[in-house]
Amino acid sequence: MHARHRAVLPDWLTLYYDQPLEITHGEGRHVWDAEGRRYLDFFGGILTTMTAHALPEVTKAVGEQAGRVLHTSTLYLNLPMVELAERIAALSGIPDARVFFTTSGTEANDAALLLATSYRRSHQILAMRNSYHGRSFSTVGITGNRAWSPTSLSPFQTLYVHGGVRTRGPFAHLDDTEFTAACVGDLRDMLGQTRGDVAALIAEPVQGVGGFTSPPDGLYAAFREVLDEHGILWISDEVQTGWGRTGDHFWGWQAHGAAGPPDMLTFAKGIGNGMSVGGVVARAEIMNCLDANSLSTFGGSPVTMAAANANLAYLLEHDLQANARRVGGLLLERLRAAALPGPGPGGAPRPGVVREVRGRGLMIGVELVVPGTDTPSPEAASLVLEAAREGGVLIGKGGGHSTAGVLRIAPPLTLTVAEAEAGAAVLEAALRTAEDRLTGGTRA
Ligand code: PMP
């Protein structure tokens, strides 16, 4: 299977694990591989499984809709699409909101950029350093994380702003207030050097691919004041942070209370629970600025809309945001305790592999370093990933500065306390295995 994959798919497609995994089925928070091994899924297919694998409510809704008609086009009225748009518009916090559905986060951000540049008649975009916004020509042009930006060609003039990463970089030594002031100063300085007609700022409230790092709460409120002085729009990329994943808030932008709501937000991933659903929400004035017949063939298809409606209804009925807060909080504590290094050879103290455990709700990052240094360690991340898989837990990795030195943990939002405990125990053992390998020790 692996050989067949390599023979026909692009060389640059990332596959996790020395022996890549073939997932054949799933249920709840678990998936099974082709050999019948069961894994606790702590990454949910990069946050695409929002509630649970094979959630019966979603499966039923998809089956019923597919059994009725698989017709897909935005040329006719489509009840599941209108219903979902009404729900999302009401939840978005954006006044007079209109929703345009796409099939992915990339396409959602493309649409937001098309709207912003058309509305403001400018191709200047502010984006955050270390950001990730998608894989199309336009979205790699506003992606600050070099590992994910394979070309320097771009339809935009993009200006990269400080603030997305709190833990590293020139302002990392500052406290939250000073950090915010420094980033606002940087933004002002940058705008002072432009012609002043920047279209929009696009930002992830918690950087996802970049390693689950968040700015101090309120940073975007402070940015907003500056943006407003110039009429610059704010696009919140909620592809990873939406739907209550961060626990305290339904949308990531809400951590910046006074800043909100943004002018536009984009969503994708979890809302379809594995089906291809994305979209952009914008104030009507912005959404309707296009002089175009803009249709999407598959965006808003009745089957994917049925999945998203059922998934969203389940999320709200079971208050999974509260579950993300509660179980995510426990998992964070448990992982912080697990981060302390085990004893070295002969019981002597030794440097650990964990630099920081951080997170909000069920979006937890564990930043790994070469033991005894502050250097990010993609090697440690790979070792932990392999050991966790051996122990029956799937996690992700990411990180800034072109390294994948951060473990990313983002289980389905129905995660139970018992599953969080079981997963944390496996990760603790995996961290010790990585330390043993990297410090040359062995455990008794
Ligand atoms: N924005 C963010 C914040 C993302 O994390 C991603 C996907 N990792 C995207 C956009 C692109 O979404 P998609 O892969 O669905 O195109």
What does this protein structure show overall?
By secondary structure, this protein is an alpha/beta fold. It folds into two domains: 57-317, Aspartate Aminotransferase, domain 2 (3-Layer(aba) Sandwich), CATH 3.40.640; 319-439, Aspartate Aminotransferase, domain 1 (Alpha-Beta Complex). 36% of the residues lie in helices and 16% in strands. It has 13 helices and 15 strands. The chain has a seven-stranded mixed beta sheet with strand order 4-10-9-8-7-5-6, with helices on both faces. α12 (378-390) packs across α13. Bound molecules: 4'-deoxy-4'-aminopyridoxal-5'-phosphate. Residues 46, 104-106, 109, 132-135, 204, 208-209, 237, 239-240, 268, 278 line the site of 4'-deoxy-4'-aminopyridoxal-5'-phosphate.
